[in-house]
Amino acid sequence: MAETTATNGIHVLNVEDGEANHKTNQESSSFCVSVPFMQKVFAEVLGTYFVIFAGCGSVVVNLVSDNKVTFPGISIIWGLVVMVMIYSVGHISGAHFNPAVTIAFAVTKRFPLKQVPAYVGAQILGSTLAAGTLRLIFNGPQNHFAGTMPSGTPFQSFVIEFIITFYLMFVVSGVATDNRAIGELAGLAVGATVLLNVMCTGPISGASMNPARSIGPAIVSGHFKDLWVYIFGPTLGAVSGALVYNLIRFTDKPLREITKSGSFLRGVGRK
After folding, report:
1. Distance of CA 126 to CAs 6, 48, 115, 123, Å?
2. Taking Cα atoms as reference points, which of 108, 86, 98 lies closest to residue 234?
3. Which of 188, 244, 254, 268 is 20 to 30 Å from 9 by CA-CA measure?
4. H, E, C per residue of 200-228
5. Is 215 left (phi over 0), alpha (psi -120 to 50) or beta?
6. Strand pairing partners for 13?
7. pLDDT per position as a tens digit, 80-122
8. How far apart are CA 214 and CA 211, in angstroms?
9. Are 199 and 78 in contact (CB under 8 A)?
């Protein structure tokens, strides 16, 4: 039994013969060509915007409402919004929403290097617009809208950001690039990982795991102190997580290719 994956990463079909396999690949190629690159970039802007708006919005609302959202509630919101947006636009852009993820896919040759600047720019733009929207809606103190700031030492936060982003990218690599994983659960697995990381390490480092998540609010608030922690920690962690998963992978089947969209999703919506 052969397994095929559409070039935009959202369709997978188990077929019994090579003819069906060839047909599916033809459909996949035509679908990929029909989606302009700017659509993917715009999907990254929108996806990152809604992730940051919901996630950071829950933090701001919690601050201005005397902790009515609660920290567990914030953790759940981050996990849910990531999951929802992966299922929403994963078939269009790949649902990276994170420069560290995009760079890690590029380093492991699962995403075109020449598309990295556009994706990273789109993610930072989406994050900045979301942070700006929150700043316009709420009139709280300026520090309500600051980027991720460590409550521990910068070194402590750097190590934590490295580890939790390593963990996140390790999970992403498993559910998105391994033939043996259940692709339909990719969004759920990634969202749950984000929830767990925020729950476990949020009080110390802020659990950014995403340079765009920290850069956008930092630009809006003008607070850039220790921003390097949230740029280099997650990026190095994501690249390391992807490389380590490739080292431990063992299969006699061809590796799943993350195509130009670098999608997390496969196996959804096939008719």
Report:
1. 27, 5, 17, 5
2. 98
3. 244
4. HHHHHHCCCCCHHHHHHHHHHHCCCCCHH
5. alpha
6. 4
7. 999 999 999 988 988 999 999 999 999 999 899 999 999 999 9
8. 5
9. no
